[in-house]
Each structure stands twice: as C-alpha cells, then as structure tokens.
Design a protein that fits this description.
Involved in both the histidine and tryptophan biosynthetic pathways. The protein is α/β, with parallel strands linked by helices. The chain has one domain: Alpha-Beta Barrel (TIM Barrel). The chain is globular and about 40 Å long. It is about 35% helix and about 25% strand. Strands 1-4-5-6-7-10-11-12 form an 8-stranded parallel barrel, surrounded by 8 helices. Strand 1 and strand 2 form a beta hairpin. It binds ligand LGQLAAA5.
Length: about 240
C-alpha cells in the first residue's frame, strides 16, 4: 500500500521513435526522438518508474523488441513494460529484459485462461491494462471491443490479478484532465492497486489523482504533458511528494 502517488513517465515506441498518440489512434503520432534518450532523461529527473510501451507490437505492425530490451537494460529504475505481450514467447521476452512488471491488455480480453495461468505463475510481475471507452474494454491497439470493464475486473480479481493500469482512451494524449470518476469507480470495484493513465495536463491534475491514493490509486502514468513541457518531471514529483 503506497501513501504517496507514484509517477510513471511514459515512453511509447513506434517505428524506433518515442511518440505520443491522441486517443491511442494510429496515425496521430507526434515524434519525440530517441526512446533511450527520453527514458534516460526521465531517470535523470528523478523518476522511480518508467512506463515503456511497444506500440508496434500493440497495433500488430511489427515490434521494437530489441530497442525495448536495450532501453530496459539501460535503466536503474523500475520498468513497466507493455504492448504486444500476449503469449508465452512475448511474455518470456518481456520478462527477460529485466523489467519489474508487464502490463497485459489484449490477452486479458482474448485469452483469459492464459492470463489466469500467468497471474498464478508470476504474481506481482503481471498487471492488467484496462483500456476503456466508457465502460467497454478495447484491445488490439484499442481498435476492438473486448467486453465490460466491471465484469472483466471481477474475473481478474478472482484470479488474483495484482494490479490494474486504467486508461480512459477518450482522455489519452489529449491534455484534457484525467477521468477521476472512472478511477473512483474502479477503486470502489476492486481492492487491488490502480495505476491511472490518460489525460494528465497539469500539476493540479496530479494533485487530484494523488487525493485518490487512500481509495487505492497507487500511481499515475504521465505522457503528453511531459513531452509538451506543461511541467517538468521534477515539478511533478515535488507536487505529489507529500
Ligand atoms: O499507450 C498507448 O497510447 C496505446 C495506444 C494504443 C494501443 C496500446 C497502447 N498502449 C499500451 O499497450 C497495452 C496493450 O497492449 P496489448 O493489447 O497487450 O498488446 C496497453 O495496456 C497500453 O499500456
């Protein structure tokens, strides 16, 4: 149980570049250069976590596996890895990078038996990404519906899932503020820690998410706001430090 909100600066990789998308839609990329440089910059700024995403693997347009392994290997901080981790081979490759945990999206919707097995086998190293539009989960690069958020949450809870990364797709990459109501509702539906994702635009947004720590929000992913220089990571860490 954390008392202070953890921040996870994001590095999303597409075609070898660090990018940000709007609503997670392919084709909306803004490029921010080298993923390794971005990750090292967040580490130098004091991050304790990195949220590293292979977008090509998530979209099914190839993968950046070697680069993701290079970036993870270069980090002294904890790494949460996601995108395209859907079977034994991709999970083994992800865990072999030395990452702290992986975040499963599509697999939790399409191959629930496999996900139950890997939760049982790997425990805290497995998080599930609940990527939602309204209360409908989306998989395969957020292009396909994958069932009801709360039914899936109930199933995953019963299987022992350690934590959830909750993304409001409508907010992601928009700088429109987080969906606090969604976070409150998910926290009310599970006793597992929740990592918030999508929409952070200001230090006040982070303070508002930090107020949900007593409800079960453990961390927040921060992406576009950092790349757009709405604030620095140092300022963000300071804002949630008490
Ligand atoms: O992070 C994004 O912007 C994003 C956009 C579109 C698809 C996925 C995205 N991110 C991460 O990918 C995993 C899902 O990958 P998969 O379904 O397991 O292959 C998701 O949890 C997000 O962390």
């Amino acid at each position: 149980m954390v008392t202070k909100l953890e921040l996870l600066p994001a590095v999303d990789v597409r075609d070898g570049q660090a990018v940000r998308l709007v609503h997670g839609e392919s084709g909306t990329e803004t490029s921010y250069g080298s993923p390794l440089e971005a990750a090292l910059a967040w580490q130098r700024a004091g991050a304790e976590w990195l949220h590293l995403v292979d977008l090509d693997a998530a979209f099914g347009t190839g993968d950046n596996r070697a680069l993701i392994a290079e970036v993870t290997g270069a980090m002294d901080i904890k790494v949460e890895l996601s995108g395209g981790i859907r079977d034994d081979d991709t999970l083994a490759a992800a865990l072999a990078t030395g990452c702290t945990r992986v975040n499963l999206g599509t697999a939790a919707l399409e191959t629930p038996e496999w996900v139950a097995q890997v939760i049982a086998r790997h425990g805290d190293q497995i998080a599930v990404g609940l990527d939602v539009r309204g209360t409908t989960l989306r998989g395969r690069g957020w292009t396909r519906d994958g069932g009801d958020l709360y039914e899936t949450l109930k199933r995953l809870d019963s299987e022992g899932c350690a934590r959830y990364v909750v993304t409001d797709i409508a907010k992601d990459g928009t700088l429109q503020g987080p969906n606090l109501e969604l976070l409150r509702n998910v926290c009310a539906a599970t006793d597992r820690p929740v990592v918030a994702s999508g929409g952070v635009s200001s230090l006040d947004d982070l303070r508002a998410i930090a107020e949900l720590v007593p409800l079960g929000v453990e961390g927040s992913i921060v992406g576009k706001a950092l790349y757009a220089k709405a604030f620095t990571l140092e300022e963000a860490l300071e804002a949630v430090s008490s």
